[in-house]
Amino acid sequence: MLIQNRRELSAADVTPKSLWLDRRRFLGMAAGVAFAPAAGGRFGLNEAQTARKDATSYNNFLELGESKEAPAENAHRFNPRPWTVKLGGETAKPLTQDIEALLKAFALEERVYRLRCVEAWSMVIPWIGFPLADLLKKAEPTSRAKFVEFVSLHDSARLPGQRNPLYPWPYREGLRIDEAMHPLTLLAVGMYGDLLPGQNGAPIRLVVPWKYGFKSIKSVVAINLVETQPKTTWGSMQPGEYGFYSNVNPAVDHPRWSQKKERRIGEILKRDTLPFNGYAEQVAQMYAGMDLRTNY
Amino acid sequence: MTVNVRKAAWLLGLVPLGWLAVKAGLWGLGANPIEFIIRFLGDWALRFLLLCLCVTPLLRWLPRLAPARRTLGLLCFCFAASHILLYLGLERFFDLEELWKDIVKRRYITVGMLVFLMLVPLAVTSTNRWVKRLGFPGWKKLHRLVWLIGFLACLHFAMMVKFYAYAEPLFYAGFLLVLLGMRFRAKDRIMPGH
Ligand code: HEM
């Protein structure tokens, strides 16, 4: 498990010794101590999981390179320690927490989710993490908190792709407060029973399974509760292509990709894309009365 | 001799395919092999077009290369046709209605289709019979389309890449510009003062 394909980096390659020891603690959890395995869980999913090798070598993470392969190749340059996450804005109790403390502060559980990229491919990934709502509740959002803004690490030494001046770094994303509090919305710290590799957004990332993958921001350092809809990276660069909601919707095409079908990584022919990526039952009511064609 | 140059040029077409087979066998084509192959074929269609356009300036020193020009042009056509066939079969399942929607809605597909539609008459009229039928000046005029094809192929490439990842298509477009510039200079030499 640790030494696989040459190109695939194990956590040991990308982290200092201290964390490496910590990783063993995490693997101890993986043995069943501290995170609840997904089997038959609340959001159980009976679909074959994507091969770990594919999920960790086919990534969109511009901060580590433009191509799909580059993030895995460059991940050794990205040390996700030290790391703190700041939670602020419209909250009664803003907090700043070290990643180690965060890892211990919440009950970790495994969630097997579909991931649907706006580029019309998809995967099924076993994440390990905790509901974002658990963290937000700790900070006690005020009544003015209508949206949540997420910000990635801005450090071009660790994320060399940020030397590209054409993008407005750091990457930003946002959710409406009810979306952020939804039980499906996860802060992931691991996948496939292991810590998150750099290319998948170490050490902590958002996972919102009913939205296109770019909403699930990687390597988060700041979470701000705000009153007005925050600006998002793709939304401000190409507003006609990337809406704020970006719910998976086979009926609304992206200008460059038809969204009707998707290629599940590992398969040849495409399959039909489901509304809300198959999570309509859990999330559709949040958008009742909204025109999802204009609010794409 | 002519035959050999032509054969060698056709063999050149096997090089990328051989490389693709070796890569597939030894290292695999990554997590999304279909996308990889479609892009690979598109890349080589454009590259053979550029190679084809390199032949004319080289004729001054290597006149024997002349027959390679037609073959390289046809290789461009073959790679482009396979590029589109795979796209049609594996991305759109030969669903012509979907394809039509793609052509209308997705501008990079519109451009790709235009490029292909222009490549077809050039491939068809590549034989000696057609050169005779059209008369050399007429044939030459028609085949000037190749420049438009080249630039539009670069545009097609640039339009499908991610925001601002234009380095590769720009490189090819620059290369085309240099080749085009050489043609104009050659003309000036032949017709001084014009
Ligand atoms: C109906 C005609 C065409 C269609 C539908 C088409 C479609 C496509 C598609 C789907 C892609 C890849 C997009 C992706 O993977 O995200 C692509 C890329 C490309 N196509 Fe085409 N294409 C057409 C014609 C052509 C022609 C005639 C050429 C060249 C002479 C060409 C050259 C390229 C190149 C260079 C790329 C970029 C490959 C890369 O990313 O490295 N295409 N095209």
Written account of the structure:
By secondary structure, chain A is α+β, with helices and mostly antiparallel strands. Chain A has a single domain (38-287), classed as Sulfite Oxidase, Chain A, domain 2 (Alpha-Beta Complex), CATH 3.90.420.10. Chain A has helices spanning 11-14, 17-30, 52-55, 70-74, 99-105, 132-139, 177-181, 233-237, 280-283; strands spanning 35-36, 84-89, 95-98, 108-116, 121-131, 147-152, 172-176, 186-191, 194-195, 205-207, 220-226, 261-264, 271-272. In chain A, the strands form 2 sheets. In chain A, strands 1, 4, 5, 8, 9, 10, 12 and 13 form an 8-stranded mixed beta sheet that branches. Chain A has a 5-stranded mixed beta sheet with strand order 3-2-11-6-7. In chain A, a hairpin with a 6-residue loop joins strand 12 and strand 13. The longest helix of chain A has 14 residues, at 17-30. The N and C termini of chain A lie far apart (40 Å). Chain B has one domain (2-185). Helices cover 82% and strands 0% of the residues of chain B. Chain B has 9 helices and no strands. The radius of gyration of chain B is 18 Å and the shape is globular. The mean pLDDT of chain B is 90. Classes of the chains: A alpha+beta (296), B mainly alpha (194). Chain A binds chain B through residues 51, 53-55, 57-58, 62, 66, 68-69, 121, 164, 166-167, 237-238, 253, 255-258, 260, 263, 265-266, 268-270, and chain B through 30-32, 34-35, 90-91, 93, 98, 101-102, 105-108, 159-160, 162-165. The structure holds protoporphyrin IX containing FE. Protoporphyrin IX containing FE binds at residues 35, 38-39, 42-43, 45-46, 49, 80, 83-84, 87, 109, 112-113, 115-116, 119, 153, 156-157, 160 of chain B.
